[in-house]
């Protein structure tokens, strides 16, 4: 079977790299990365992928320039392999740059075509949809229809440890990507001077301790009647055995907001990392680290509102001053401010473009201070 691990814009190659490290042959495509395997492989991907949004089983794809073509194409797919007489199968949709641009119509036609296929196979006229939920998605892009089954359920960024987001939250998947793309190596300290509610620090600790991000949550595929539950349970137990919080060291952060630090401590505890990450209330302006080298990794305020922009520019300047107080350290920051480098006082060594929600940002790496 072919699967698609969906990803936010800019993260397709990161997800493909994760899949390759898990042992799969993966290809980055628009909107994610494709790989082949069975349901046990989908379970591993759901458990271990840090930067993907969902893992979808690709049922089929075809050209659809009319509603008739969409109906016939959907009805030709082997839905009886994945849906029983009792299955509940909600259909979601997305359309972009196609002749068919009505999402609601595409959803309705897809549902009707699946029902027609199942009626012919099961020789019944009515489906109660009282059984397991099998989420289906129809996506049309450049007149190509792709039909998928969502094996994840709730999006994979929902790790289960974060109960409050703060004012400018990073999605867990983006935070994990920033950790992966930073120059941080696990034998060096990591510090976040704007740690907020702790997402960057927790994702780094997950990576250091070999903690599967999906370890404590459930996935839609665990309810599919054709999936062997004993196999999925064994894969989850393997992930549980690999988690070793004693491997975590030298991950810390601070924030000027006491409420944010209170929530960060709660999230650290809910992530099963109590006592492994040190956070404290501290103004970035007074931050001084005793280690000779390390990495500052942070998501400072963006100043999206004009009234906040001057304050943020001053903050970026002071962040540069803090950076230069630590000549052996590097710094990575994500920001939407076009003048970040000028305010910071250093030219960036490397940058990469991402979206934090709907905000276009750059992830910038500044090498050791001089």
Summarize the entry for a quick read.
This protein is of the alpha/beta class and 370 residues long. It contains ten helices and 14 strands.
Describe the structure.
- This protein has 370 residues and is an alpha/beta fold.
- It folds into two domains: 2-150, 2-Layer Sandwich (VC0802-like); 172-211 and 244-366, Vaccinia Virus protein VP39 (Rossmann fold).
- Helices cover 32% and strands 22% of the residues.
- It has ten helices and 14 strands.
- A seven-stranded mixed β-sheet has the order 2-3-1-4-7-6-5.
- Strand 5, helix 4 (103-122) and strand 6 form a beta-alpha-beta unit.
- Helix 2 packs parallel to helix 7, helix 3 (67-75) packs parallel to helix 4 and helix 5 (172-181) packs across helix 6 (199-208).
- The longest helix is centred in the N-terminal third of the chain and has 20 residues, at 103-122.
- It is elongated.
- The protein starts with a strand and ends with a strand.
- The mean pLDDT is 94.
Write the layout of secondary structure elements.
Elements: E1 2-6, H1 12-21, E2 27-29, E3 32-36, H2 39-48, E4 54-63, H3 67-75, E5 91-96, H4 103-122, E6 136-141, E7 144-150, H5 172-181, E8 190-192, H6 199-208, H7 229-242, E9 251-255, H8 258-270, E10 278-281, E11 294-298, H9 306-324, E12 329-335, H10 340-344, E13 350-356, E14 359-366
Parallel strand pairs: 5-6, 8-9, 8-11, 9-10, 11-12
Antiparallel strand pairs: 1-3, 1-4, 2-3, 4-7, 6-7, 12-14, 13-14
Helix pairs in contact: 2-7, 3-4, 5-6
């Amino acid at each position: 079977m072919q699967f698609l691990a969906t990803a936010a814009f800019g993260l397709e190659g990161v997800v493909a790299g994760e899949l390759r490290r898990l042992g799969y042959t993966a290809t980055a495509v628009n909107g994610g990365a494709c790989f082949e395997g069975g349901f046990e492989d989908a379970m591993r991907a759901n458990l271990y992928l840090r930067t993907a949004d969902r893992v979808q089983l690709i049922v089929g794809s075809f050209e659809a320039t009319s509603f008739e073509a969409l109906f016939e194409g959907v009805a030709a797919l082997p839905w009886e392999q994945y849906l029983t007489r009792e299955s509940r199968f909600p259909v979601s949709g997305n359309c972009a740059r196609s002749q068919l641009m009505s999402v609601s119509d595409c959803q309705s036609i897809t549902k009707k075509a699946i029902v027609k296929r199942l009626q012919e196979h099961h020789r019944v006229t009515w489906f109660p949809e009282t059984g397991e939920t099998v989420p289906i998605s129809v996506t049309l892009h450049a007149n190509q229809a792709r039909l998928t089954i969502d094996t994840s359920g709730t999006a994979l960024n929902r790790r289960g440890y974060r109960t409050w987001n703060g004012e400018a939250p990073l999605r867990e998947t983006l935070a994990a990507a920033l950790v992966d793309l930073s120059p941080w190596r696990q034998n060096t300290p990591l510090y976040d001077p704007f740690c907020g509610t702790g997402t960057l620090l927790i994702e780094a600790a997950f990576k250091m301790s070999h903690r599967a991000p999906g370890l404590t949550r459930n996935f839609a595929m665990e309810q599919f009647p054709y999936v062997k539950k004993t196999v999925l349970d064994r894969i989850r137990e393997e992930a549980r055995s690999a988690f070793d919080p004693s491997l975590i060291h030298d991950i810390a952060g601070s924030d000027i907001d006491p409420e944010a630090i209170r929530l960060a401590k709660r999230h650290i505890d809910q992530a099963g990392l109590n006592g492994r990450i040190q956070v404290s209330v501290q103004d970035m302006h007074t931050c001084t680290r005793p280690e000779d080298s390390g990495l500052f990794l942070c998501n400072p305020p963006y100043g999206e509102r004009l009234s906040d922009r001057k304050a943020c520019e001053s903050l970026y300047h002071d962040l540069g001053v803090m950076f230069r107080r630590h000549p052996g350290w590097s710094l990575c920051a994500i920001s939407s401010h076009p003048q970040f480098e000028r305010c910071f006082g250093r030219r960036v060594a490397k940058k990469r473009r991402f979206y934090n929600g709907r905000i276009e940002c750059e992830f910038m790496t500044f090498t050791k201070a001089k």
